[in-house]
Amino acid sequence: MNILLVEDDTMLAEAVRDGLRRNGFEVDWVGDAARAKTALVDHHYAAVLLDLGLPGSSGLSVLSTLRGRYDATPVLILTARDKLSDRIVGLDAGADDYIVKPFQPDELYARLRAVMRRSQGRVSPVLSYANLVLDPARREVTRDGEAVALSAHEFRTLMLLMERQGRVVTREQLEEAVYGSSGTIESNTIAVYIHQLRRKLGEHVIATVHGYGYRIGGTTA
């Protein structure tokens, strides 16, 4: 099982990473919010260990971006902030559990195993349009009941369009949803994903609204 560790304290991160590896986990380690968001777009993780006090941007921004995509990956917050109000903010933002530094390694491993077990029973909203059904929790799309194989980027593009069906979604909004930021990828990248989705789902599923963006369903911008 692959875990993403988001922690800017090098000494602590190395200790946690080494301990997790001894307990049978594979670990990717990043030290800031920007790289965490990129890693969560490019890879699927069994869980995330997330520090809140990151350089540049709070760990809460990582959590917000993750949950904004209906990504139900379990998140265990690691932080030195031990006030009740801080814990409430983290849990309300979508964290699955919270452990305060300094912590005992065995408690960390136990809490991690617990949030991963609980995540298997989590229910997320299912999105549907015409003959398409998208299940965010299972990362599955079906067309007329048949599974459709989509890349991670295609899936996120389709999910945002289905979530906002009937409304126009701009290229910048799609870039933000797919990559966690806009203006940092090639100008035709989203158009390529739209083309691939039309090829797999049908030419008329996604409409181009010239000068604005793309839309599933509806007749007005």
From TrEMBL:
It is found in: Cytoplasm. GO terms for cellular component: cytosol; protein-DNA complex. The keyword Phosphoprotein applies. Keywords: Cytoplasm, DNA-binding, Phosphoprotein, Transcription, Transcription regulation, Two-component regulatory system. Pfam families: Response_reg, Trans_reg_C. It comes from the Bacteria. The modification 4-aspartylphosphate is found at D51. This is DNA-binding response regulator. It comes from Lysobacter silvisoli.
